[in-house]
């Protein structure tokens, strides 16, 4: 990945804009982003429920992984084979899926054997194309890769910016202030504040403030 001071990519580069591109035309890039990652179809089961619970023993997910589904029969209503779904880990063997609109709800009947295929940035049309990373407007953050600084994230996953809580406080006393983290937990801090409007008595309490970002493997050329 490089940044350039122009609005078109230099020779030998593509825009990292999430576009679908040909697997045959960009075979080496497809191998690097999808095939060489070792992703292979994995079977799973799912119940009919609100929300649906997906089961795959020892799935290895941390949360945020991107999956595309397939089946030898019929998926239950609420699922299809053309949408990219995202993992929310429950435990070592089960997980929820979402597609940007909350946890998936299943209904109706199902048949056959279901499988998922993981990818970092998308499988395009599922057969002839794949998706490039979409880094437009994003900060790039080094993937944790076991270090323990940014735990619970998979390679290529996005992370929302942390929230800054602003409160009315005419007495100048800073209340306990919550800052949301990417894993749904909150941090609390009362030791930092900035008086952003003395007349209105408004204070800003903050901790661990960060921009939205995408986790990518940090490498050094040798």
UniProtKB/TrEMBL annotation:
Residues 4-33, 114-140 form the Phage tail collar domain. InterPro entries: ATP_synth_asu-like_sf, Phage_tail_collar_dom, Phage_tail_collar_dom_sf. This is Phage tail collar domain-containing protein. It comes from Leeia aquatica.
């Amino acid at each position: 990945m490089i940044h350039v001071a122009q609005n078109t990519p230099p020779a030998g580069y593509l825009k990292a804009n999430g576009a679908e591109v040909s697997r045959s035309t960009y075979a080496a890039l497809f191998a690097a982003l999808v095939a060489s990652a070792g992703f292979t179809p994995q079977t799973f089961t799912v119940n009919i429920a609100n929300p649906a619970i997906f089961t795959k023993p020892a799935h290895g997910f941390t949360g945020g992984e991107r999956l595309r589904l397939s089946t030898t029969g019929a998926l239950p209503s609420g699922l299809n084979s053309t949408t990219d779904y995202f993992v929310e880990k429950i435990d070592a063997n089960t997980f929820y899926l979402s597609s940007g609109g909350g946890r998936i709800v299943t209904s109706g009947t199902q048949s056959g054997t279901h499988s998922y295929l993981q990818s970092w940035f998308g499988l395009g049309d599922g057969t002839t194309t794949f998706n490039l990373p979409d880094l437009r407007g994003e900060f790039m953050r080094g993937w944790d890769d076991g270090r323990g600084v940014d735990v619970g994230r998979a390679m290529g996953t996005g992370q929302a910016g942390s929230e800054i809580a602003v409160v009315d406080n005419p007495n100048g006393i800073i209340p306990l202030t919550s800052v949301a983290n990417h894993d749904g937990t909150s941090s609390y801090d009362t030791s930092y504040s900035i008086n952003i409007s003395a007349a209105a008595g408004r204070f800003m309490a903050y901790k661990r403030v960060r921009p939205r970002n995408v986790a990518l493997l940090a490498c050094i050329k040798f």
